[in-house]
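Internal tracking record. Fields below are filled automatically when a chain is submitted to the structure queue. Please do not edit lines marked as system-generated. If the sequence contains nonstandard residues, flag them in the REMARKS field before resubmitting.
Queue: standard
Priority: normal
Entity type: single polypeptide chain
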Amino acid sequence: MLDELDLLKKDWQRKAENLPKLSFDEIYRMLWKKSSSIVKWICYISIIELVFWIVMSILPFFWNSFQEKLDDTYGSGEDTFVIFSSAFGVAVVIIFIFYLFRAYKSISTVDNVKKLMESILRTRRIVRYYVIYNLFMAVLITLYTFYTLFTHDDKTMQLLESVKENGSELRFWLISGLIVLAGIGFMVAIIWLFYRLVYGILLKRLYQNYKELERLEV
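SYSTEM-GENERATED OUTPUT FOLLOWS
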């Protein structure tokens, strides 16, 4: 058995000698091109996401039923929180794209391993901060949605009044709290899964390039 293993090793070594050996510069250029391409794709995806959120933010205001709902709920014709959060979200995506573009330009113009590694780490941090922001906004919007439901929705307010009359208010708030927590958990899980699939794969490849560059520098 050992003899067969030795023969296999010797055969592999002979084959390895015939394989083309890449120089340091060739490996670096390959990793540089791969990293630049990955960041470019992240930029493209973020631009598509920006267009999507702009459309989703503006489209409801063209629906009469949406405007009527705002009138009935707030009595002012427009919900300040909805408008502000939509505008703020679009602004954050624009800033995110700006920093991603800067990261792409940085990777595209670097001329040494150390700077390329720093650019890769910077890009990963930018995307992670963006994902954290979206998770935070998901929690905030979910909380605001439930707050609006309990303070402005007629049916919910009537239910709360009947619960108070029956003396089961504590039970109502405990169940409501569990529903709110479940809603937050669901929203966070959906958003985390979305960004994990969309950006996670690209970031993983980018990190693999970083590890390869780390070995080159050593």
